[in-house]
Design a protein that fits this description.
A hairpin with a 2-residue loop joins strand 36 (488-489) and strand 37. The relative contact order is 0.15. By secondary structure, the chain is an all-beta fold. The chain has one helix and 45 strands. Among the domains are: 1-36 and 382-615, no CATH class; 59-187, Sandwich (Immunoglobulin-like). Helix content is 1%, strand content 33%.
């Protein structure tokens, strides 16, 4: 559901340096037996963070006539080359020039409004750990002010990814073609949360409400130790959290009329981990299907920040949602709902969201207003390592603002749409190294799903003002029943605008004519992808037509583990473009197209996944 940018191509010379020995890959895995629900205890996470910053990149301006004010960015060139570390002075750089950062465990959202910034200049970004002498290059940031909101925060916005937790970094931002610079120092979150009082909660048949929290140095822990809260359809909630600096773990929550757990407005630094949610939601008597937006985990209010949702299993709501071909737009239960969250800065990782054909979800994760500057999941949020399946609409509904929202290393299947992004009103939204499998359009069809990426509008095209980056994703076609492409399915092509696409495997289902939408609304930069159908007319010169072959492609649903490495004779093998900070960890002269690089171990998803950062 959305659209974004545009960029030109620059000749990509052969790069044969003995590429730096980057650590293991962006590697996520998930292990679960669909019948054997585990609640393994996970390490807690520290949520307090500091500031940080980065940059943007050369562009030319055009008036965005479809938007109410502001300019959008039109690429004049692509970032290419080898990400060679640059030696430098080892002295810490401190904080100068006005840039800032908002961090999570593995990412930093960077913000800057330099004097002289314009759509003809990028901000170039370098970063390093404090104490290191060598700078690493990050992806450039683009000029993209949004004129009628303050939610855009700064003129230049972008992210540095694959960072190590509990580590202090510094970044140098340079306004391209000038001597204007900013330096910023920032720290990622600590995964070892300081725990204070522990409240052991036993099984019960009434709602449990938390009103007492802890402090930044002593989170208050509410531990179920496997206890069950079963309200037997006598209460709207199993649990309410109305406090900050709280950890909720090791509960089974079942039997609620509407929601499993709700975090109330104004609270922050809440960790929800290692819980199981099942049998929630009510029946809509008017439709005969589930009530809409009954969520296992709900953040409904705007001023909730720094919530970590990790290693939870959410499965089998009480009632089935409707499919598109049963009663129009699907309505029903969801696993995680975040409604128009303004504060943001959440992490949703290592969760399992699944059901069966008689108890399918509306969306897996979602609930934000499409036509808004907030939406789902809130700014500066990471979503990774999740397994999301069995949805009559979208597995991941990433719609609304999208400001420095990063979605990576998720596995989605059995849904109408894998990832929805209609529309990205602020951006940038980063979608990278995700894998989609089997897809399903409705009750009466068995020939695959609809769009892999939804794209398109939200009420009207004026909301399509933010940037979307699509890097290193893989669409699988199990038995030919996978998704369509980016903004396209069958012969339908949604509005496509402000999108950069690189190094993706667009292996689309047989009924889909194009790999990416040809409904060009401007500001597109599409190149270096592998496409099994047709490229749109506006595509670059380095795309590859063909069908991928794999070394031993498989996804083991019992343990949520997959191998998606291309065979060395496949098209796309070492055919990708080097993308600073997003292609880290490849071996060979160039990265592979697709999510899984050769020499990387299997990907895991869900409660036993663990992300391995590269920087």
């Amino acid at each position: 559901m959305k659209n974004l940018l545009k960029n030109n191509k620059v000749l990509f010379g052969i790069i044969s340096l003995g590429i730096l020995a980057f650590a293991l890959p962006i590697t996520l895995l998930l292990i679960r037996d669909s019948q054997d629900l585990r609640s393994s205890a996970a390490a807690p996470d520290q949520l307090e963070s500091e500031a940080g910053v980065l940059s943007s990149s050369g562009v030319s301006t055009q008036s965005d006539s479809g938007a109410s004010g502001g300019n959008y960015v039109l690429f004049t060139r692509s970032q290419t080359g080898t990400p060679t570390p640059e030696p430098g002075n080892c002295t810490p750089v401190g904080n100068t020039g006005g840039a800032s950062a908002i961090t999570t465990f593995h990412s930093a959202g960077l913000y800057w409004s330099p004097s002289g910034g314009s759509s003809s200049r990028e901000v170039l970004v370098k970063f390093r750990k404090v104490g290191n002498c060598t700078w690493n290059q990050a992806y450039p940031m683009l000029y993209n002010p949004i004129s009628d909101t303050t939610n855009d925060k700064n003129d230049y916005r972008g992210s540095v990814v694959s960072l190590s937790p509990n580590t202090t970094y510094e970044a140098e931002l340079t306004l391209e073609g000038t001597s204007t610079k900013s330096y910023v120092t920032f720290s990622t979150w600590n995964e070892n949360i300081p725990e204070g009082d522990i409240v052991n909660v036993g099984s019960r048949t009434t709602r449990y409400t938390i009103t007492q929290g802890g402090s930044p140095t002593a989170y208050r822990v509410y531990d179920g130790n496997g206890a069950t809260i079963d309200v037997n359809k006598n209460d709207t909630y199993n649990m309410i959290v109305d406090a900050s600096y709280v950890i909720v773990r090791n509960f089974k929550m079942t039997g609620s009329k509407t929601y499993g757990i709700r975090v109330m407005d104004g609270n922050s630094n809440v960790v929800i981990e290692d819980n199981e949610f099942t049998d929630w939601g009510s029946l809509n008597p008017d439709t005969g299907y589930a009530d809409n937006h009954d969520d296992a985990i709900l953040l409904y209010d705007p001023n909730i920040s720094k919530v970590v949702i990790q290693r939870n299993v959410m499965h089998h709501p009480t009632y089935d949602s409707n499919a598109w071909d049963e009663a129009g737009h699907p309505a029903g239960a969801q696993c995680i709902g975040i409604r128009d969250n303004l504060a943001g800065n959440h992490v949703i990782r290592y969760n399992e969201c699944y059901s069966d054909k008689d108890h399918k979800f509306n969306d897996g994760f979602g609930y934000g207003t499409n036509a808004s500057f907030t939406g789902f999941p809130g700014a500066d949020t990471d979503i990774y390592g999740n397994y999301v399946a069995n949805c009559w609409d979208d597995c991941l509904e990433i719609e609304g603002g999208g400001r420095n929202v990063r979605v990576w290393n998720n596995y989605t299947e059995d849904a109408f749409v894998s990832i929805a992004n209609a529309a990205v009103s602020i951006g940038p939204l980063y979608v990278f190294r995700n894998v989609s499998g089997y897809a399903d359009r409705g009750i009466d069809t068995d020939d695959g799903g609809s769009y892999w990426l939804k794209a398109g509008t939200a009420t009207d095209a004026s909301w399509m003002r933010g940037l979307t980056y699509l890097f290193h994703n893989t669409i699988l076609q199990p038995d030919g029943k996978g998704h369509g492409g980016a903004g396209t399915a069958g012969t339908a092509d949604r509005l496509f605008k402000h999108v950069v696409s690189r190094n993706n495997i667009y292996h689309v289902n047989s009924g889909t004519e194009n790999c990416l939408s040809d409904n060009d609304q401007g500001d597109l930069d599409l190149d270096y992808d592998l496409c099994s159908a047709k490229f749109p007319p506006n595509y670059g010169t380095n795309g590859i037509l063909g069908t991928p072959t794999y070394q031993n492609a498989n996804f083991d649903r019992a343990i949520l583990t997959g191998n998606f490495v291309l065979s060395n004779s496949s098209k796309g093998y070492e055919d990708g473009q080097i993308l600073f900070n997003f292609s880290d960890g490849f071996s060979g002269t160039r990265p592979d197209i697709g999510a899984h690089q050769n020499s990387w171990p299997a990907f895991k998803y869900g409660i036993n996944a663990l992300f391995t950062p590269l920087n």
